[in-house]
Amino acid sequence: MPVSLLWAVDVYGRVYSLSTAGQVWEQCRDAQMEFKRVTAAQQCCWGIACDNNIYLNLHASDLPVRYQEETYENQRWNPVDGFSERLLPSDRWQWSDVTGLQHQPLDNFRLPSISWEWEGDWHADENLDGEPTEKGGWTFAIDFPATYTKDKKWNSCVRRKRWLRYRTYKAMDTWAKIPSQQTTLPDPFSDISCGGWEISDEPRGRLSLWAVSLQGKVWFREGICHHNPEGSLWEEMLLPGEVVQISCGPGDLIWAVLWEGQLIVREGISRDCPKGTSWAEVDSPSPDVGAAHVAVGVNVVWALTKDNKVWFRRGVNSHNPSGSGWINMVGEMIMINVGLNDQVFAISCEDRAVYFRQGVTSSELSGKTWKAITVPRDGDRSHSSASTSSLQSAGCYFCGEVRAQSVVSDVESDTEKGSIDGASRLVASISPESFVDAPTDLSDQPIDAPKPRIPKVTSDSFISELVSDREPGKTSSEGGPSGPAVLEEEPIPGEEEVDAPCASVALSSSQSGGPPDPQWSNVDLEEAQGQQAQTGAVADSADTCSLSSVATYSLAIEDQYGADEHPLWAWVSGGGCSVDSHSQLNWFNCSVNASSLVQSVQSMSLSVTPAQTAAWRKQIFEQLSDRTKREMDNFRHYEQAVEQSVWVKKGTMQWWRDWKPHKWIDVHFALEQFSGPEGNKDGILFIYYNFYEEKKYLHAFINEVTILVPVLNDSKHSFAVYTPERTKQRWPIRLAAATELEMHDWLALLSVSCCNSRGLQGSPSKQAAWSVTCKGDIFVSEPSPSLEAMPYPTPCDQMFWRQVGGHLRVVECNSVGIVWGIGYDHTAWVHTGGYGGGFSQGLASSTDHIYTQVDVKSVYIYENQRWNPVSGYTNRGLPTDRYMWSDASGLHECTKTNMKPPSPQWTWVSDWAIDYSVSGGTDREGWQYAGDFPASYHGHKTLKDFVRRRRWARKSKLTTTGPWQEIPPISLIDVTILPCAAQSSVDVVPLWAISNKGDVLCRLGVTTLTPAGSSWLHVGTDQPFKSISIGAASQVWAIAKDGSAFYRGSVSPQSPAGDSWYHIPSPAKQKLKQVSVGRTSVYTVDENGNLWYRQGLTPSYPQGSSWEHISNNVRKVSAGPLDQVWIIADKVQGSQSLSCGTVCHRLGVQPVEPKGQSWDYGIGGGWDHITVRGNSMEPPRVRLPSLTAPAPPSPLPASNTEANGNAVGC
């Protein structure tokens, strides 16, 4: 999980951030002023300072923020001067924008703010649509406006030149003031909230920023994106009333609180209209008490009423942003905030501590309990929960040993001109929660002290109460943590009050003769000492010292808190804090708050030694053991009442029936589980259906189920159940649930049952085989020792596959437990060692090492056109043509309006856009041309081209959980890890990868303890690559994007990057696309699906001699550390249907026959990737029968094996 930040503001206006990997609040040292409120996103944090201006803190990243300014120089030709600046009166400006409507001379461009700087001077753009121009960047046309070309023609009467200049945002990791409005300035801002980054990914870094002014107006900041992080201007929104606070979620939820206590919801928010269209009013959670604060996430709304009660809004989603009703939750808070993944943070009204809502998941959005974040600040002088010196210092003060003047002896308050003499002191009573060290000797302090700096009130009315609040009666309760300190206008209590448990000692200014001040009080030290002397020698009693405390607040020092006092928070923002219910946080282990201090003080008074604690534990354990033995012996002669238990779960589902016509029918589904006396568990699946009014059933034993696969469908929440027999038929049991939640519940239950029946639990082993479906689901299988045995291996259709949470396109592993993956958006991920995630629940998922994973993939549709002599290319095709809007095959109609995301779990994050990165190239409008449908397309038009097509793309996003941690920032398309032997002693494991730009990279610092490695080493190439693999002997092979093969020479532990590339000729008339290297073998797959084996590989000649064809219809290949060969094959014929994307195992691979003999078909179809590079278990040695003995029958059916040739017999 990438490190992210939780932001908070204390009552003095200081801004702090807490890292998800840290244990200390780190103060923003850059802030030169106090802040009222902050609102955070992952890439930045916004804040309102005490000057009522808005500031931006943009986090530094590897990708700089650059903005391209452009203007066009326009000229017209005349017979006298040729091309000159003399334009016609009807022409555009000499210097204009691309439309020619705006006047844009070079000297009119100004930096938006002082946070920007120019990279260089203006320069001419000498490219037109990616092609270099001549004549100094001029492009020519017949007139304004028209189509411009790089070549001057006889009728070119006008020309233009594009001038560019870049500016860079330099104010990284610092608070930069947002420039004020150029026209009418809004009244000062009082609240701010950012969000909306999940509405659309285009433009990149887009944010919605909403602000509330003191007059109750709401403003929206236009134009915030990656290249313009400050935005452009403020736009006022129409309102049904005056607003006091607003909250914007990551998606399309925006709620606000009105002055009267009602709530309003913004409706009509979409990618095209991020500001929304209208407001809808929602009543306050309590009819008698109005709402005071609201916080929204993706699918949640939390609110606080004016009596500090916490409320949760149920039924909130994108289709119903107003929700359906309120639920009262436990706790009293003054502020609440919803962060990423709908996690909730709040500030308690009792102790002003930041609390985190635990147990918030997608299925239980309201969470379970509040837990205080108890980490120290980086400015604390001591992070320990208690110290002897602090106790002694407090005791010395009570004994009257502080006889010297304090550092504020000469302080005079503006409101207390007639107060006491120069030896005045400021003494405030605090509760045990606010225990602060007091100095034992101040004799060395100077008499003259600087003028005190009164802490500035930085926020709203409830913040104003934080220093001056503390009404009488809010005293600490007995034996527990109490509220804030109390300053009372009454004499110092007597001894009987001092001895009371957890009582606070209140000192008053009334005794000194000065006027009462509810916030700060000057007290004569001698009088205070005299009063304290009457209470007795408090320091002589450890019990009294642990129950009562007093602190001196010196107004001259910078730190307003004492060494052991927890800070008082005013605001918190989790919009940039990426945590979820599985995150392992170190925020709750540091006992530095005041309540833990009191507990540790009281525990010190008991003087319990570790030896005594150990003795007690041993004694308790012995007593429990004796009791258990005694009770078991008394009932041992009874017979066992129940020998086995049976548990049944039933439900209604739909089943894709086996016979024609195939369709979905309603069935009753039941899972019957039973456990025997020895604790072994098994079960049976029953599907009850009607066949011509006759009730029938279908069943499958749990211990025969080999895999449970979620099936991607836009209309059904379905999954498939495979058994060995169903795998041979290529026809699984396909079931559909009514809702996605119900499907996930069944999948979780069935997965746990299957694992229990096979005795599988915990994380995958180091030898496990990993595979990925074409939908991105990840599966892992524990190989048996006889999987690669000769001559009778375990059939691979009997392998059991269990799902691992996450969503990836490629997974690679090795036998020391290092597993990497690549998502569809080319993000690299490393396996954390956990298991479960996704739909897995309870014992089926580890409680730690599970993180949120986001993947983005593009959905493509094709626009097809045919040429006719009258109108040229149009969308009117022949009756036999494909659909004018279709998929790649042309068989299915796919339009922009009816095309849906891959499944209900995916959401659109962009609009449809032309895709120019199509194989074969495109013209400037994205079209590809061909003679007819379907054919080979090219990017330029010829006289024989009568049809054309162009591809449209739209991005969709999936958010899930799994045992994967992101490795930023380089995007990858392929990765390979050294396939170590079973007893390998390699310290640093070589790992190679290819970036999405085709660069070859070598990862440094990869070990079993740090599988993510430390840094990338770039390996030079002459052209971009697309596939790479490293063998067990550090032999590195790669495939370039043009389909040629390369071998990297001299790769060794001493030289991990090698020295040079050697070109290997490809098979005749074939372009290779993927390579996999085993221990001594090299296999490749070409773009036509042919599998090739490299012959002639020797240690002295590692490049080999020639390619030998093994099979066709192959999609991917994986060669393991034992030279085992597994592939993903297409067009595998079963008894029921033909499947594409099937896992196949090469049989008969041995040193004398390295190419193997035949194929064994496993799970499929729908698989896209497999890796067996972690399976280094040597197969058991089997004694072959005598040559004269009759041969045993083959364990494989005839349809599942074939001689060397096609993988599918075609």
Q: Would you summarize the structure shown here?
A:
8% of the residues lie in helices and 34% in strands.
Q: What structural class should be given to the helix and strand makeup? A: mainly beta
Radius of gyration: 37 Å
Q: N-to-C terminal Cα separation, in Å?
A: 47 Å
The total count of helices amounts to: 9
* Number of beta strands: 75
Shape: globular
Q: Beta-sheet strand percentage? A: 25-35%
Residue stretches low in confidence (pLDDT < 50, at least 5 long) are 381-558, 591-607, 1186-1210
Largest sheet: 7 strands, antiparallel
DSSP helix fraction: under 10%
Mean pLDDT, to the nearest integer, reads 78
Family: Belongs to the TECPR1 family.
Domain PH: 647-757
Main location: membrane
Organism: Zoarces viviparus
Describe the protein in words.
There is one protein chain. By secondary structure, the protein is mainly beta. It contains nine helices and 75 strands. Strands 7, 8, 9, 10, 11, 14 and 15 form a seven-stranded antiparallel sheet that branches. A seven-stranded antiparallel sheet has the order 25-26-27-28-29-30-31, with no helix packed on it. It has a seven-stranded antiparallel sheet with strand order 39-38-37-36-42-41-40. Strand 49 and strand 50 form a beta hairpin. It is globular. 41% of the residues are buried. The C terminus is likely disordered.
